[in-house]
Amino acid sequence: MYRFAICDDDAADLLYVKNQIIEWVKRQSLEVSIREFSSAESFLFAYAAEKEFDVLFLDIEMGKMSGVELAKKIRDQNKSIQIVFITGYMEYISEGYDVEALHYLLKPVKREKLEEVLCRAVERIGMQERALLLQSAGETVRVPLYEIRFMEVQKNYVTIHGMEDYSIKRTLREMQKELDGRFFQTHRSYIVNLGFVKKITKNDVVLKDGTVIPLARGLYDKINQAFINCF
Is the pTM of this model over 0.90? Predict the structure, then answer.
């Protein structure tokens, strides 16, 4: 079951989005629960007890706490929830970068755009369920793909940099077969998760945490296209 939440202080807008989601869910034959919240504070109260939301549709312009402020609080604790902002103003769009928003929907929300976002959200959730199973220090470790920032070759070992670092005796080519479209090999010794990329230059890929990954000659256009396709 997918767990959706809609947070909007405008009851009419909230009901409209909810009804459109319900119609889409019926056509897709999916099992979805939808919870409604009229303020950022009410969502945070519920979230403190139950953090298992998959998708959050979030109005930006609300009362004391804005949607952007709420998203930042949620993202500090939860890297996997898909956040979709709903706004009536174009100028807010740049604020979603820091919280890795899946998309912005401009009011009045168009059904076609909402359905596109719903499809992307479900696809992203499926991607997050994929993981590497690594043999490390005599035990099997499950590392979700969405947690991996990059991989690098160090002598005969590949080091996977995620929430923790793991080094295993395998080749980068072998590892690449277990990855998906969000990963790009920037260099013979590096594979990067495009979801963590902040900036791409002719020679380097800069991650959001400041890590600089070398970019091999001739790959600048390819990685830019992969980056666009990934999102």
Answer: no
